[in-house]
Amino acid sequence: MKLKKFTAPTTREALQKLRAELGEDAIILSTKQTAAGTEVLAASSQDLDVVTEKPATAASVAPASWTRADRAQLAPQESPRQPTAAEKVAQQVAAQRDVLIKKAPAVQHALPAGAPREFAPDDMISEVAKRRSQAASESMVSEQTAVLEEIKQMRQLLKDQMAIMTWRDSLEKNPQRGELWNLLTQSGFSPLFARTLVDKLPVGLTETQMQDWAMTVIKKNLNVVPAERDIVETGGTFALVGPTGVGKTTTTAKLAARCVVKYGADSLGLITTDSYRIGAQDQLRIYGKILGVQVYTAQTHADLAQLRSSMQRKRLILIDTVGMGQRDSRVAEQTKILTDSHVKRVLLLNATSQPETLDDVVRHYKSTGLSGAILSKLDEAIKIGGVLDVVMRHKLALHYIATGQRVPEDLFPADPRVLVHRALRSRSSQAFQTSSEELKWKMAQVSTTGL
């Protein structure tokens, strides 16, 4: 049997050469990829007939060389013949080629954008195998992820259960821990702060002793500026900053009045940068007129520098700034102008705001450092534990507390005893109080997550 090799860049071209030389009945024995392209090994059907020819027997009168027609006539009389190895290979290759040719449109349709659209059968085999392997891998990863997520949930559930059991045991040994937790959280302090204090609570205290202990700890953690070192006494240049509606202009007027009463009108300089709100400058000018102090406007860095230079002999210079939400992009610009001008910034915190909002305000305004804070609207706040929590967490120095709109009466130096007593004596309405079961669950949750 004569075997011939046909080599071409693609399988399709190799098959065309094969058919042109050996005819449509040629038998393909193998195909493989080489450096020169696709190599096809084939033989003509006549050569294969010679290989499979049987010798004549006494019972047979057939000629020595059988034709295809002779075999067809004698085939019913012969027993089934097993195909040779060459025939098996040829049949498998032909069957595989036919299947791939039928599936070629679907495979090519599934190709990614930009891929060549003419795919050889061997290339199709590789692509199908690759896609099946990728699908199996993705399925395995998905199953593993689901299993890991279930394990994670089970671990968290067990952890929560253990934390609840631990807290119950702790409460049985020291019931005051639960009472202190409830006292602090109902007063507006964060669960994290409450957990920190509860963990350090001594054993064997009465309820009164427990409250006294908590008040002492909170007072020690509040950084309050002594009266003899407040803004009016130390002097300098201070800008009152903060979001809109916290009382910056009114507080500026209160500080100005304290300074004028103690050191005279010549000791004070007043500057406003608020040109956004209608009537904002007029409001401060009215206060300045009452106090006998001229109010100046600075809208740029150059204006502020010039005014500061002209007020060098003033004991105290107060700057009323425009109110900006903590996420306003102008906050960074305002901070840079004041910092470059060597102006100390004092942040006003509205005691009626949510603790989460206050924490966000401090984080945005604290970028380059603050010289302290003033608590405003304490007369409107139901609970002040939240604002004290934020002040302690960010280690802010407290200068004053503002309790109303009257100028200058409703401004007082910060007193830790007054603040802590007010914080722990305030209570939420019944609708916002926590039940005993909710309390246990929350305590266990904070113990587990730390939040």
UniProtKB/TrEMBL annotation:
Domain SRP54-type proteins GTP-binding stretches: 235-425
Q: In what way does this protein cross or attach to the membrane? A: Peripheral membrane protein
Domain AAA+ ATPase: start-end pairs:
234-438
Quote the subcellular location field of this record.
Cell membrane
Query: What is one Pfam family matched by this protein?
Result: SRP54
Keywords noted in UniProt: Bacterial flagellum biogenesis, Bacterial flagellum protein export, Cell membrane, Cell projection, Cilium, Flagellum, GTP-binding, Membrane, Nucleotide-binding, Protein transport, Transport
Recorded hits in InterPro entries, A to Z, give: AAA+_ATPase, FlhF, FlhF__GTPase_dom, P-loop_NTPase, SRP54_GTPase_dom
Superkingdom of this protein's organism: Bacteria
* Function (record text): Necessary for flagellar biosynthesis. May be involved in translocation of the flagellum.
Q: Which NCBIfam families match?
A: FlhF (TIGR03499)
Record-stated family: Belongs to the GTP-binding SRP family.
Supply the name of the protein: Flagellar biosynthesis protein FlhF
Classification lineage: Bacteria, Pseudomonadati, Pseudomonadota, Betaproteobacteria, Burkholderiales
